[in-house]
Structures are given as C-alpha cells and as structure tokens.
C-alpha cells in the first residue's frame, strides 16, 4: 500500500533563493507527523508546497504524491478536491463572514469521502456553536484556530496540513487544540503539522522531522527524536525532562 | 418651480445612476477591480436592445433580455481577455486595457450601428402617470422599481446565499478562497458577467428616456465613477444612496441654478467629500454592507 503522502526531490525557490530542498518525506495514513525547526527554516514553505498554495509566488519542482497519485501540476483547489487540506498560518478563516458561513461556504468534498457536517464540527468545538452568528473577526485567536480546523474538516481531508496552529495561543489552549487534533488522528485522520513549539509537538505527534535551512536533517519516531542531541540542544534545552 | 416635480425627476435620475453603477460597485467591492469600458458596455446594451427591436420586431421586454444576455457574455469575455491582470489585481494596467476595450467597443458600434442618434422605443415611455402636481412615465416607475429590486436581490444574494458568501470570500482574501476548494478565476468571471449584465439591464431601462448615440459611453463612465466613489468604494447600499443623492442634487441644481453646470457641481461635491471625509471613501473590505 502506498503512503498517504510521499514527497520526492521537492525544490521550492523564491526568485533565485532556494528555500526548501527535500529529497524524501513520507507520511503514513492515520499518523500525526510534525515538522519542527527554527524560524525561516522552511517549515511553512514545505507544507504550502504540498498544497500548492502560497501568498508569495514560489517556484516549485519535484514530486508530491497522495495515496500514490501524482499531484504535481494540480492547482490548490484541485488538491483540495482530492483531499489535501491546508490550514495556513495566521489567517485561516474569513473575518467578514460569520462563524456558520465560514463552515458552510466550502466546496463539497470529493466523491467517496464523508465530509463533516456543521453539526459534527459544533460537537467537536462546542464554543463555535455558541458563537455561530458572530463574525469570525470577533473571535479570539483560539476560536479562530478551532474554526479554521472545523472548516478544513468540512471538506473531508485525507491529509490535513496544519501550519503553526498554536501560534499566539495561551499554553492551555495550545494543549487543548493539539490534543483535539490527536483525537482526530486516533479516529483515522492523517495530519502533517508544522510547529515551532517543539515541546507541544513532541507531546502529540507520532513522528517528528527536523528541518534546517530548507533541508530535513533528522526524522523518526517521536520517542527517538526526543533524545536526538540536535533537538535536545537547539529546541528542548534545559527545560527538557 | 415645481419642487415636487423636481423631486420626482431627481428620484428617477438617481435610480438610473444607481442602477448603472451597481455592476461596477460589485466589481470594485468584491474583486477590487475597475472597468473603464463600463460606459461603452452601457452603450452596447442600449444599441443591442434597439437593434433587436428594429431588426427583428421582437417586443421591448425580449430586447431587454437579449441585452442582458449579451452584456453578461461581454463581461465574461472581458474577464477571460484580462485574466492575468484580474488575478494579479494589476489596477493601473487594467484601467488602461479596459479603457482600450471600451474604445474598441465604441468603434465597433459606430461601424455596426452608424453615427445617427436612435430611439429605443419602449412602449412604457409613451404611458404617463399624473398624480396631483407631478407626472412621470411608466418607464420611470419600472426603472425605479427594477433598481430597488436589483439592489435588494444583490444585497440578499451576498448575505444569504452560498454564492454570495463565495463572492465575499474573494473580496476578503482570494488566496484563502482557493483553500475552500473554489476556483477563484471562476468567481471573478461570475462577477464580471454580473457587471456586464447589470449595466446592459440598466441601459435597456434607462436608454428609452433619451436618444441614444454610440458615443454616449464616456458620460456614463464618468457619472458611474462619481456614484461608486461617493458611495464608499464598492459599498452596495452606499452606491444606492449615492446614486439617489446625486440624482436629487442634479435635478434640484439644474432647476435652481443652471443645468449647464450640474456635472461640474457633482464633481465639486465629489472633491468636497474626498477632502472632508476621506476615510469614508477608502476601500475597506466592508463592501457588502
């Protein structure tokens, strides 16, 4: 059986500057993988390239496969139709739309996949039900992230790409949100998560990849990676253990 | 001076301004795009309706339908032609190419329809209603009613429908819209088609009030620009209020001061508004209100 996501020889460049050069990255179905690394290491560039989405205009080359199907050349919306769903960093919802509109105004999920209903999303995040009529612009940062994840689930992703969901959130909210995502993975969802908060990522992921200057320099099961000296020194430091 | 009659005239002219501007309002509000070929599309709408009636003998209302369909097609073609500029929101170049597109339309219309003024003969222009001291034509009443209906439907569609939500999404963040599984260029095409259909509809309703000329497009684009800017760049309700206000202003100014200076006076009003309340006029992303 082929992997849920398989990246080969991926190169992403902005102008002349190469931002990401990943020879191989595999995500197995039903797992939660994390990409960790410093600011500017290329984490976001990497998962944006999987979705073929960016606010800039990068040049992307290489192969991205979903369940063995080559995605190269497909637009972002065509990848959404096939089940690749990105929640981008920062703004993942429409501030001028109500909470409920954010959940309803999505394209229907591709055939053969059962999308989450709006009621399912409210059951997962009861807070959103309370604020269903409010504009998304009036939500707190944590509520916006819940809404962004809920909106993504409405399109029945096979692979959910989350770019820094914890950014700007209070520590308690970070662990609540990440444990919700862990529960979704335990129910069968496949997630690739970009996270600066290495402690939080190590708590919930199955596999961790370390990216430095656009290249994957280490990767493996989280239990092993926790003790990797490069991660301990650079990211976990004295707080570890 | 019959003040009541001037008010009626102002209301009718104001609704005409608003209806002519509604397409551009959506275009600017949702897509952040401009179309300086708007006036010539108005002219084409009027001439197509005229031609359908003159050449085929079809009734007026079918000519209106034909003009609207052709207007929608013209809008969609424009979006295809200028696809790259629309997606990159290259406003300066889009202004120039749409001006050029308008000139091409005007030239083509001159060749096809000739230089003579024509009359779009709506049967409703011949029927008048007298109410006490005021009178208006049935065409005027239809124009006012249709304008209110178009604005109300547009407002409801934007706020109560899935498609309207998609338009508001594109207005707020086109890139993010793609992640909702939407083909953004398709939504832009729909907005351009609406712009073309709306201005052709406006032309088919407004044009019977005066003789039509293939060179009349530029005046329309000027007035539309004033309505859209005064309405608060891209605001749907703002454009309605601005159109109505300018209509009343021109009618009263024409009657009280001089009809020769109304256009200049409207621009003075625009400049005053831009100086006094610039914040109100800025494109703000709140167009759907």
UniProtKB/TrEMBL annotation, chain A:
InterPro entries attached to this UniProt entry: AAA+_ATPase, ABC_transporter-like_ATP-bd, ABC_transporter-like_CS, BCAA_Transport_ATP-bd_LivF, P-loop_NTPase
Family: Belongs to the ABC transporter superfamily.
Protein name: ABC transporter ATP-binding protein
Domain ABC transporter: 5-238
Origin species: Methylobacterium nonmethylotrophicum
PANTHER family listed in its UniProt record: ABC TRANSPORTER ATP-BINDING PROTEIN, HIGH-AFFINITY BRANCHED-CHAIN AMINO ACID TRANSPORT ATP-BINDING PROTEIN LIVF
Gene Ontology BP, a term: L-amino acid transport
Keyword Transport found: yes
Gene Ontology terms for molecular function: ATP binding; ATP hydrolysis activity; branched-chain amino acid transmembrane transporter activity
Entry keyword set: Amino-acid transport, ATP-binding, Nucleotide-binding, Transport
SUPFAM superfamilies reported for this sequence: P-loop containing nucleoside triphosphate hydrolases
From TrEMBL, chain B:
GO MF annotation, one: transmembrane transporter activity
Keyword tags: Amino-acid transport, Cell membrane, Membrane, Transmembrane, Transmembrane helix, Transport
CDD domains (alphabetical): TM_PBP1_LivH_like (cd06582)
Pfam families: BPD_transp_2
Location relative to the cell: Cell membrane
Membrane spanning residue stretches: 6-26, 58-79, 91-114, 134-158, 187-208, 220-241, 248-276
Gene Ontology biological process terms, A to Z: amino acid transport
Topology class, membrane: Multi-pass membrane protein
UniProt family annotation: Belongs to the binding-protein-dependent transport system permease family. LivHM subfamily.
Stated name of the protein: Branched-chain amino acid ABC transporter permease
């Amino acid at each position: 059986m082929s992997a849920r996501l398989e990246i080969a020889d991926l190169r992403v460049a902005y102008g002349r500057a190469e931002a990401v050069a990943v020879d191989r990255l595999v995500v197995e179905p039903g797992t939660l993988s994390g990409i960790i690394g410093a600011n500017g290491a290329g984490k976001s560039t990497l998962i944006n390239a999987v979705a073929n989405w960016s606010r800039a205009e990068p040049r992307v080359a290489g192969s991205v496969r979903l369940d063995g199907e080559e995605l190269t050349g497909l637009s972002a919306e065509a990848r959404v139709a096939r089940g690749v769903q990105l929640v981008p960093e920062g703004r993942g919802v429409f501030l001028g739309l109500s909470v409920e509109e954010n959940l309803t105004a999505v394209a229907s999920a591709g055939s053969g996949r059962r999308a989450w209903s709006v009621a399912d999303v409210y059951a997962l995040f009861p807070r959103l039900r309370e604020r269903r009529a409010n504009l998304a612009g009036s939500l707190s940062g944590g509520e916006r992230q819940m809404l962004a994840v809920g909106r993504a689930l409405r399109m029945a992703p096979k692979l959910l790409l989350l770019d820094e969901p914890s950014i700007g959130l209070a520590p308690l909210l970070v662990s609540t949100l990440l444990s919700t995502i862990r529960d979704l993975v335990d129910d069968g969802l496949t997630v690739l998560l970009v996270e600066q908060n290495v402690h939080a990522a190590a708590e919930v992921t199955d596999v961790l990849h370390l990216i430095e200057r656009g290249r994957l320099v280490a990767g493996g099961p989280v239990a092993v990676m926790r003790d990797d000296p490069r991660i301990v020194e650079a990211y976990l430091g004295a707080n570890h253990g | 001076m019959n003040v009541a009659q001037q008010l009626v005239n102002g209301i009718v002219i104001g609704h005409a301004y608003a209806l002519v501007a509604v397409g551009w309002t959506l275009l600017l509000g949702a897509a952040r795009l401009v179309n300086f070929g708007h006036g010539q599309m108005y002219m084409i709408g009027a001439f197509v309706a005229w031609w359908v009636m003159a050449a085929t003998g079809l009734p007026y209302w079918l000519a209106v339908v034909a003009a609207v369909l052709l207007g929608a097609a013209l809008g969609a073609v424009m979006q295809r032609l200028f696809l790259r500029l629309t997606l990159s929101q290259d406003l300066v170049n889009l202004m120039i190419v749409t001006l050029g597109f308008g000139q091409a339309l005007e030239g083509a219309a001159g060749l096809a329809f000739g230089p003579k003024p024509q009359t779009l003969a709506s049967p409703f222009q011949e029927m008048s209603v007298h109410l006490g001291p005021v009178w208006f034509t049935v065409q005027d009443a239809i124009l006012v009613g249709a304008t209110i209906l178009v604005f109300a439907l547009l407002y409801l569609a934007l706020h109560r429908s899935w498609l309207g939500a998609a338009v508001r999404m594109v207005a707020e963040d086109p890139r993010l819209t793609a992640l909702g599984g939407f083909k953004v260029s398709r939504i832009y095409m729909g907005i351009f088609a609406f712009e073309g259909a709306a201005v052709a509809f406006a032309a088919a309703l407004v044009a019977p009030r005066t003789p039509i000329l293939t060179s009349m497009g530029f005046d329309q684009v000027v007035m539309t620009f004033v309505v859209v800017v005064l309405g608060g760049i891209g605001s749907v309700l703002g454009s309605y209020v601005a159109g109505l206000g300018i209509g009343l202003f021109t009618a009263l100014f024409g009657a009280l001061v001089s009809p020769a200076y109304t256009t200049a006076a409207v621009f003075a009003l625009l400049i005053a508004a831009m100086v006094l309340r610039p914040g109100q006029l800025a494109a703000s992303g709140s167009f759907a209100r």
